[in-house]
Known about the structure:
Structural class of chain A: mainly alpha
Number of domains of chain B: 1
Order of helices and strands of chain A: HHHHHHHHHHHHHHHHHHH
Strand content of chain A: under 5%
Oligomer: heterodimer
Number of helices of chain A: 19
Mean pLDDT of chain A: 89
Radius of gyration of chain B: 18 Å
Helix content of chain A: over 70%
Largest sheet of chain B: none
Distance between the termini of chain B: 70 Å
Largest interface: A-B, 52 and 54 residues
Amino acid sequence: MSDLSGLPFVGVLGAPLVAAAALAAIRGYRLSAAVNAVASFVTLLAAFAFLAMKPAPGPLLFIDDLNIVFIVVNAFVGFTTSVFSASYIGHEIETGRLTRNHVRFYHAMFQAMMFGMNLALVANNIGLMWVAVELATLTTVVMVGLYRTHQSLEAAWKYFILGSVGIALALFGTTLVYVAALPVLGEGLQTMAWTNLIVHVAQFEPAILNLAFVFLLLGYGTKVGLVPVHGWLPDAHAEGPTPISAVLSGLLLNVALYAVLRFKMLMAGNAGAVAPGPLMIGMGLASLSFGALMLYRRRDIKRLFAYSSIEHMGIITFAFGVGGPLANFAGLLHMAMHSLTKSAIFYAVGHVAQIKGTQRIADIRGLTHSHPLLGWGLVLGVLAIAGIPPMGIFMSEFLIVTSTMDRMPWLAAPLVGGLLLGFGALLKQLNSVAFGEPTPNQAPGDASYLPLYGHLALVLTAGIFLPASLVQWFQTIARLLG
Amino acid sequence: MTDSLTYDVAHLFAGGMVLVSFMLLYQDRMGALLNTFALHAAVLSLSVAWQAHGQNAPHLYVTAVIALGLKAILIPSALRRIVRRLDIHREIETTVGIGPTMLFGVGLVALSIVLMLKVTPGFDPLGRQDLAFALAVILLGMLMMVTRRNAVSQVVGFMSLENGLILAASGARGMPLVVEISIAFSVLIAFIVIGLFLFRIRERFDSVDLSALNVSRGDAP
């Protein structure tokens, strides 16, 4: 069986790559939407296969307990987004906002982006991971600019410039890690492998690791959307096609966070290096408070949820910064829950914006009356993201607060303050959108409810009952993260 | 060939890149800016080639050739064509005056040298000074990006920043080839993307001044 164990790698990387090439050639949008979904499904199956068989680490690719979680979440949300995208794109073609050529390009780029993200997650080489993150960034840049309107070009340009500077800083940090490892591991490819770095990190020069981590945190932190380097995020979410907003929030931010976590593990392995926790706690708290405050005055519904993503990435970074088994566990759980919930919200918002013909919150009212299924789906999603009890996010937030109380009680006050701020803002905004007198529709509602309610069901299930095996698995990873 | 000569020449090229980075900061014409950038890339190419020679690492010659062909010749000439087509060769609009920018740049160079020499006490002197110069080039590139309003000169700033990254990567002994080729490759992609954007921006707004883009925030009441 040893020769078959590499098969999942072929699946998660090969399926998107082949699909991207094929989709660039297919003209019909119905066919290409179907191919897109099928390819994403194959990727998902391959990701699940990692659970059954774990290939031995190679020089370039590897899989361990940490990245497998990210891969499964990535492939799952990628698949549901491709299903949502099929109905979304159909509507855009009918209304003439996108031409067939744009859609062909969009589908090819979607799969290229999935390839980039999966490669970043399975890479066993810090250089290869960097290349993959850059690829994923570039593909999302062109998709954000897809509508070619004034605003979408501005958003794409801003995203491109800030993302490139971030990614450049990350490369300098990567070079510094290599330089630090050079005296210990010698020249060559093996010096950039995670599996080697983590074993020998204790012998590296701490001062240079510190400098490297600052660059890496700022660089990949730009991609995570951490304050103060978050500037691209709201625009990119608001102006691109909504399926891209869903994968940006649900997946790309996670991939960047994964990179930060890996380097955090390196730092933790070296006794002389500065503790990465306080830096992450600081940036996390800043993002949480800033995101929560910004929620109040939003007038564009997609920007609203973009700021909510900044808030939640802040919470997750905070949790990993606090560290310890419980906070790491909560951070991982929150990461998965946020991905599922936020993409579900964007699925609902995408259809709402199409039906109402606008993204302005003031022009969207009474959704639960006019479109009960969609409206209540959005209500459930927003309640979940705000952290209302039976949902999974409540559980992860509760765990984060308790572990903070436990380890650094003085930080619990700003954390809870930020959470409550965000909670109030979301309920205030939700009230006007979901209830009241309905505003007129611009287009008939032709929504796909399966991805939306599928995600919400998973989030609800996780909040009520987490299978023991899953808990155990997450606990193992939490210990790994230190 | 003595070690001290190897060292001195490498030092010369790396220092030359910092110098050309400064020259980029005070150019006030688009054509001159692009010429200076071509010079920047040419010095990078020399520096990388010298590293290839000094480290006995032939694969670095590939990086040097890519730097020369792509960044010193191909990209500047393509940008020149864009500039001519858009008729913007006279205007370089800065947000901060040239004088303060240069002073700030001097501060950044001092900062990066002090910082890098401080954190790498036990490393070989060539590698650490290369890193210090590379960090200076990176920071100067960022400075250029924030002080320019025009899309083309921001792009030039970004590419000079990437040159600094390659200087750092080539100075790190034996850093795998995979990385360098992919860096060059990503620059190419980046360029295509940027080119695309420039044309679209021109198409829509008749200006490549980015402040013209700064109109809608989606949050207007």
